[in-house]
Design a protein that fits this description.
mainly alpha, about 40 residues, rod-shaped, 1 helix
């Protein structure tokens, strides 16, 4: 991973990876939430 930043909190790659991980977590969590409401 590149360690340098040009004064930005997130690089484009970090933002995309963060959104992808969040989407995977949401996709995994939503069925489990629906499964508890029988």
């Amino acid at each position: 991973m590149l360690a340098h930043r040009d004064g930005q909190g997130f690089t484009l790659v970090e933002l995309v990876v963060t959104l992808a991980v969040a989407a995977i977590i949401m996709a995994a969590a939503v069925p489990s939430f629906h499964g508890t409401h029988y």
